Amino acid sequence: MKTLLLVMSTLIGGSMTLIFVGRERLGIGWGQILGALAAFFASALIVPATIMAAFVLYGIWPQFRYWVFDHNVVPGLSNHPAWWVIIFAVGFPLVALGARRIVAATSETIVAARRSFVFVTAGFFFTALLSFWPFLSRQDYLPFYPLAFIICTGAVLTISDRWVRNRNAAKIWRVMPIPAWFGVCELLVALLAHPFWDDKAKLESDLLRDTLKLTEPGDFVFDRRGEMVFRQRCFYPIIETFTEERIRRGLMEDNAIQRCIDTRTCVAVLPGAMPSTTVRFLEQNYLPIGNRLRVAGVLCTHPRTGSTLILKSLFRPPTKSSRATLAL
Length: 328
Description:
The protein is of the alpha/beta class. The protein has 15 helices and seven strands.
């Protein structure tokens, strides 16, 4: 979905660059333009076309189309107000005006075209994303960041060069230019925010290690987004915003409980957001063993002493998985 918006932004950026710079000034004909477009789309479509062809070949194209496109379109679902459409109505004309001034201020034709293309492409993507994207998440901004980085880098280098040529500028800018300061600050922020000596992957690696110990390759697990990646999931949909909303509206069947029972799923991760009945079922029938992991069973109090606890498998006779569960 983000790729479609990026392709549209690329076409808008190229078209407006041709208008601002001029085809005659660039010295290219319509044949060259059409050839470049054909080469662009041919190379851009290789990977997605191969993936889609594989799904068609194996007869599961309807599932691909639903989960990639249809599932992610839920009318009325949004996490930002409708009036944000004004961002595009006001912002993109300003982007176009800025690109036109950039072209006018740049003497070299090729450099002017490059600057205009990157600026318009980034501006269209950002303003259209904020105005028309139904449900914004951090991942939706990923195609924008490289373009924004190029624009900001050019601006910083230009300012740095002017300061270095300015005799009244402090000597420190000549010894250590602005880009170097940015690099040092970025390194310090990265170390403070995400210190490399802090193993934050331990929780995930422990989850996978425990899952592999408790299950065999043919066993099912219940997780949110496929985080127990080495085992097949009993509940097929990814548990995220669109799935939750479709279940809430009755557009999708919530058969997670029945699937856990039918597939005899003994290992689960309690999801953060699911219908209360599913969460309650998991809490009542799966016991926590640390690191978000749960195993099927119940705690039984000894009738005489009241202190002995027994972990009992719910879904099947003792196997490797349930023996491991009992051992825990």
